[in-house]
Amino acid sequence: MALPKIMGILNVTPDSFSDGGQFDSEASACSQVEALLVSGADIIDVGGESTRPFAKPVTAKEELRRVIPVIRTIRRHHSIPISIDTTKAEVASQAIEAGADIINDISALRQDPEMVALVRETSVPVIIMHMQGTPGDMQLKPQYRNVVTEVIDFFQERLTWLAEQGVDTKRITVDPGIGFGKSLGHNLSLLKHMAELKSLGCPLLLGHSRKRFIADITGLEVEDRDLPTAVISAIAVESGVDILRVHNVAATRQALQMVAAIREAD
User: Fold this and answer.
1) Domains of the chain and CATH, by start
2) Catalytic annotation present for 75
3) Catalytic residue among 88, 211, 225, 253
């Protein structure tokens, strides 16, 4: 079983839950990219709109203002794959033109009716995520009969629909949406049973980094959650996760190095 790739998070936003405002200038964003690359990132995920609980949406114009210059600069200096974290087809389209290689849509192509046409007309890989509700209301009272079964059912429906729309589903990666319309128990169940999502036949992305459920268990503030994030990353390797989306790439890389060393031992 291969080790997962590490997707380094670059939020060029003023209000993201973990690092809002830290990288919302082109200079600070590009400096962070260099740090992520030195730490061993395999992919850079650029987002211009916060999707934390109760976040306010931004216009496509504002999102483009935030992400396009950064994507152009990254592509000018580096060949690393770039993911655009957006639900808007206009933003995704211009990001691809600027050099992005992957679309990461937390709405699973449900929010913008134009997104599926863009996906069909391009050859880029696409990440679709499960979310109960919207960022504005998803954490009010999430409820499931069986969260693992319902998340799998959701992706099966999405994959069927995308195939009917003419999208090659071999391009699709699924993300169970840790923290997106889930309670602590829901998140832990998904982490425990992550391997069951491999039945979908798609690559699997896990986005757990620094999220609130870690504080529910440890009491740690957001800036102190990298150690438990790395522990979860190491455990998730055995579930066959293909991509780990994290803030602290260095800590995750170290965790994967330990996993690899243990695997290779006599």
Assistant:
1) 5-264 (3.20.20.20)
2) no
3) 211
